């Protein structure tokens, strides 16, 4: 039976491939996935799957088994990134400045593939499968939007499973791993206010640029000297906007950045540590400041018992040699917001292949993946559902 699941997925590989390439050709940004959600709706209705809309673009499909039982959610994200594609693929993005550089087109196609398989197997399991097609993962808010819209209710989801492709792992491999897997991801914005003056006489003003430079350097001492090195963190200043002209002392600088950690206690301390540093340096340099901190994604923490159950099922389908474990990943995923509400596990799907040039990382304008991974991903979704419902 386990081997048959993979065979079923391989039989619809071309169907998933066509879907994925169409979605790749027409990527849409967060909360603007109108064409994508329309296609999902149409495909689910063709399969006889009950469809519900969440917000403007979120979609939930419901497959009921032979009788009442537990409820599992299978989640795929579907938004693209503001990246100009440079892959040379015949199905490259036709939407200027937008690209599926994170593989969400694949996630959507694989979940539709699993819907096709599970809708034909509904007499073989008890309970319900909820197919959750989520917008705006890249914004870090899409999962919460779906939760607020009632995705986990009516019927109430008991457990939830998600997946992400990675070219870091070879095609055919799947990471199914219990415990903390991906870090939290939060955001901050710092505005530093000095006083403008002529660049030839900087003593007549207060240079916000110099203050900002001191802060950026000092923030890394939080990583190396304040935080416990046995619990890793990242503080990244991603954007710096300051000054108006080459011969004017800067009166304002805006810094934006992100923090990553696996420790919830440290996560709460980070904004305090940062603002203490900012306050001291701004005082020393004679600047004022405004500091805003936004909690976005919690730690992706896979439930132990659920993950072990799913791991055994996928192992039987794909072979023990194709199940991997990995070091924890400092990247974040808003799938974690579902895990704050119910038990869940998040899997990583290998999609790398050097011979096919599938070596570029997520978010690269050159990103592409081995499309043979589609049938592996659909199999993993199906086996996760069957492991729980059978």
Looking across the biggest beta sheet, what order are the strands in?
A: 1-2-4-3-5-16-6-15
Number of DSSP-assigned strands: 16
The fourth-level CATH homologous superfamily of the largest domain is Zn peptidases
Q: Outline, from the CA principal axes?
A: elongated
The averaged pLDDT comes out at: 97
Report the biggest beta sheet as strand number plus sense, adding barrel if it closes.
8 strands, mixed
CATH level-3 fold name of the largest domain: Aminopeptidase
Structural class given helices, strands, pairing?
alpha/beta
Rg, Å, rounded: 23 Å
**How many domains?**
2
- Topology order in helix (H) and strand (E) letters: HHHEEEHEHEEEEEHEEEHEEHEHEH
List low-pLDDT spans: none
Q: What share of the residues does DSSP label as strand, in percent?
A: 25-35%
Number of helical regions? 10
First-to-last CA distance: 12 Å
Helix content: 25-40%
> What's the CATH first level of the largest domain?
Alpha Beta
At CATH's second level, what is the architecture of the largest domain?
3-Layer(aba) Sandwich
